Amino acid sequence: MQVGVAERTFKFLVEGGKATAGPPIGPLMTPLGINVLQLIEEINQKTAEFRGMHVNVIVSVDTESKAFRVEVGVPSTVALISREVGLEKGSGSAGKEAVGDLSLEGLLKIAKLKTERLRAKSLKAAVLSVAGTCVSMGVTIAGKNPKEFIKEVRGGKYDDLFAEATSSSQA
Question: pTM, whole model, 2 decimals?
Answer without folding.
Answer: 0.75
